[in-house]
Amino acid sequence: MSAEAEAPSGDIALPFVMRFGAARPMIGAAAVTLFLLVWQIVGANEIIRSDLISYPSEVARTLIAMSASGELGSNLWVSLQEFLQGFLPAIAFGIAAGTAFALVPRLHYLCEPLIVVLNTAPIIAFVPIVVVWFGVGTQSKAIMVFLAAVIPILINTMTGIRQVHESWVRACRAFGASRAQVIAKAILPGALPPVMVGVRLAVGRAIVGLIAAEMYVSVRGIGRLIQVYSSSERAAEIFVLVAVVATFGFALVTLLRRLEGLIAPWSLEP
Amino acid sequence: MGALSLEHLSLSYARRGDAFLALADVNLSIADGELVTIVGPSGCGKSTLLMLIAALLKPTSGAVRLDGRLVTAPGSDRALVFQDFALLPWRTVLANVALGLELKGVPANARVEIARRHIAMVGLSAFERAYPHQLSGGMRQRVGIARALAVEPQVLLMDEPFGALDAQIRQVMGAELLRIWERGRKTILFVTHDIDEAIYLADRTIVMSASPGRVIADIKVPLKRPRPLDIRNDPAFTAYRQRIWDLLEREVLASNSWGTAAGAVA
Amino acid sequence: MSPRREQIILGIVGTLAFLVVWEIAARLDLINPIVVSNPSRIAAAFVAQLQSGEIFADLGVSLVEFAAGFGLSVVVGITLGIAMGLNRPTEYAIDPFVWFLYSSPLIAFYPLIVVWLGFGFATVVAITFLLSFVSIVVNTVAGVQDVDPQLVRAVRAFGGTRFEVIRKAILPAAVPLIIAGLRIGLGRALHGVVLGEMFSSNAGLGYRITFHAAHLRTADVFVPLTVLVAIGLLINALGNALEARLQAWRP
Known about the structure:
Chain A is an all-alpha fold. Chain A is built from eleven helices and no strands. The longest helix of chain A is centred in the C-terminal third of the chain and has 38 residues.
C-alpha cells in the first residue's frame, strides 16, 4: 500500500484522504477485535452450530490439546521433512538450470514448453499422477514440493541473470574484463536479488503442493490431518490447522525477506 | 604518452532494417595532456565516439590510434567514466575503485593501497566502506572518477559524467575535475551537451553536428588557468559561448530531439 | 533464421524429442508402461474419451464452475478494491483480513468450505472465488491508490466534480494494475476449480483426474490433465494479449 502522505487540507488533489496516518493500526486492530468478539459470541452461544464454525476460545483450547498430545508436533515434523526434501533440491536445481538457460539460450528454448506447462498449469492437477508414479509415501510429497518450487526459482534466476543492469556489465568490460570475469563480477552478484525473490515466491507454491499431496493420500502429515478433520466436521481442529499452515508460510516468507535485506540491502533501494 | 588520433572514423549499424549512420568520417588529433571537450546536440554520436575509442564498439571504417598503435580492445590505457556512474552496488567504495586494478591482475595488497590513494584524491576517504546507495550522485561520480584514475590510464574518457547531477553540483564537480587534472595533466576527452561546461573545462572544444555526427568546428580555448568558477561571466568566455551556440542552434533544430525529420534544416 | 522462429522450432524439437524418448523407454520396458504410461497409449485414451463424449461433459462442468467463481470474484473484488482504495478507513478496517487471506496458503481453508457447503458445485465455486478474489482486491486497491495526484489535480482544475474525478482520472489510471490483478486471479481461479473438483466433487476435469487415478488408469489420467494444461495456457495467452492491448500507452 502506498505511503500515507499528509495532504494539506487545502490540497484539492486528494479530497478522499482523511488524515488518518496514525490510525491505520488502530482501525485495523479494532476491526479484528470486533470480528473475534462477534465470532466468539455467535459460536459459543450456538447461534450458529459451533461444530461448523467454532469460536476463538475453543480454537485456542484445541490448539493446546493438539500440541500437548503430540498430534500437531509429530505431523508437523513429517510435513516439514517432506517440505525440505523437496524444497532444497529445488533451490539447487532451479538456480543451476536457470543459470544454464540464461547463458545458453538454445538450451532454454528446447525446454521452454515444459517450463511453460509447469508454470501455467495448476500444480495440484499433477498430484494424482505423481502419487501413482511415486507411491503413497513421503517421496511423492517431496517430489510435488520440488515440482512446485523449482519453476519460480528457475524462471527468476534466468530472468535475473538476463536482466542484469547493462551499466554493470559495461563498466567491467570497459576495464578489460574477460567474459568469465564479467559473469563472476557483474552478473552473478547482480542476479542474486531476483534469485532470492524467486525462492520466496516458491514457498507459497511449494506449501500448496505439499498440502494437496498429503490431503490426497498419506499416512501422516498436516495435510492428512486436514482431510481427517474435514470429513468429521471438526471446525475447531481445522482452524488450528489453518493457522498452523498459514503461520508456517508467513514465517518462512518473512525470514526470507529478512535474508534479502541482509544479503542485498542495495537492491531494496529505489 | 596519451596522444590520440582518430582517422576517418565512421560507424553505421542496422536499425529497424535500415542502415543508420551514426558517425561520418570523424578525424581528430589530440595531443598528450590536452583536455578536449566535445559538445553537440543529443543523438549526434558523441557518446558513440567515446565507445569507439574505448573499443566497446568497433568502427565500420577508419581507425583509432593511441600513440600510433591501433586500438582494438578495451584496456587500462583508456579509462571510462559513465553518465550513470556504473558502480557495482554490492561493492563498497574501496572495492569499486579497485575493480579496474582487479581486472588488471594487480595483487590484493597493492590494489588496496592504490585504491586508497585515489579515493583520497577525490576527497572521499571517510566513505571507503560505504555502499553506493548510501552516497549522493556527486559522491558516486567521484568514486567513478577515482576508479578510472586508479588504473593510471593514458587517456580519460568521460561520457557526460555530470549529466545526472543537478546544476550547482555540476559546476562544483567541474572545478574539482580541473583541480585533479592539474596534478597529473592526463589527456581527457570530455563529452557534454552543456556549452558552458564545455568551454569552462577545455583547452579545445570540438563541436559536432546532428546525426550523422561529424566535426563542424574545432575551437581553441586559450583562457588562463587555473580557471575560477566565475570566469563564466568574462567577456571572452561569453564570446566563445555565443560562437558555439550559433553553430549548435541550427544543429539542435535539425536533430531528432526537436522533431524535425532527419536531415531537414529548419 | 529470425530468433523468434528459432525459438519456436527449438521448442517443438525439444518437446518431440521428449515424447519420442518417453515412447521408446516404455516400448523397451525401461519404465513400466502400465504405471507410467506412454504417448501412444495416452493418444489412444484421448481418442476414446473424445468419442465417448466424456471429456466434453467434464470440460463443460469445469468451465461453468470457473466462470461462476471467477465472475463473482471479479465483481466482488473490484468493487471492494475501489471502495477500499478510495476510502482509507475502509481500507484500514478490511486490510488485516485481506492480508491474512493473501499470505496464507488458501488450500488450508478448503476443508472449512467443505464443512459449510458440503460436496459439489457450490463448494467448487466458493473455493474458486476465494482463491482468485484476493489478488484482484489487492491489485485494485494498489491501482486506485497509486494514481498520479497530478492527474486528479488536472481534472479538478478543469472543473470536474468528485464523481468525474473518479470516472475520468482515477479509474482509467488504475486499469493497468486492475488488469494485472485479474490476470493473477485467472490463474488462481483455475487452481481453485481443480482443487475443488479433485477433493469435493464428482464432476469436472479435476474430479476425472482423481477418478482415473484411483482406478490406476494412468493413460486416462493424462487426458483431462492435458485439457487443463491447455486451458491454463490459453488463459495465460489471453491474459497477455489483454494486458498488452490495454497498456499501449505505457512506456
